[in-house]
Design a protein that fits this description.
Layout (H helix, E strand, L loop, with lengths): L5 E2 L4 H19 L3 H5 L2 E13 L11 E11 L1 H12 L11 E13 L5 E13 L7 E14 L2 E11 L14
Parallel strand pairs: 1-4, 2-7
Antiparallel strand pairs: 2-3, 4-5, 5-6, 6-7
InterPro entries: NTF2-like_dom_sf, Rng_hydr_dOase-bsu
Organism: Metallosphaera prunae
GO molecular function: dioxygenase activity
Length: about 180
Amino acid sequence: MSLGVVTGNVEEEVKREVVDFLIAEAELLSSHKYAEWLDILTDDIDYQMPVRITREKEKDQLSVELSKKFHHFYDDKKSLEMKAKRLLNEYAWSENPPSRLVYLITNVRIEKGERSDEVNVKSDVLFIRSRRDEWEYEFLPYQRRDVLRKVDGKWKLRKRFIIPLPSVIPLRNLDNLL
């Protein structure tokens, strides 16, 4: 597969379904179909992007340090619904006219989750946004740590934890990172 998929302990069918889910989700977001995107979230969704901290590395310290107190966003279903509703509103100045978006997803790693109806999915994403007639693009590389849950025979996003590569986010706004 072109996404660079590695699976630990899941069947080929689950691998295919998860990759199809990730591609379909990217299409919904890049097409600004936020109402439809909300339908692929579980009601108990946990959606967050903590602030990345840059410090001098000490002996045996992890290379990724994230704030436990500060987040770029920390959302549940209700707050995501409010964000989506605002983006679909004609007065959403940050998205008028709508941005052109691309989500490049690669290095997908899939493993069985804690529950029998869940899988853990790690992936690397390159978010690219073009606004208006500007010649410069906005880029944000990040890693996602997702939990997908099978609900009524379909995969839904239960948890998303976004780890940005940069500590300073090089975007004008985070509206499209729903």
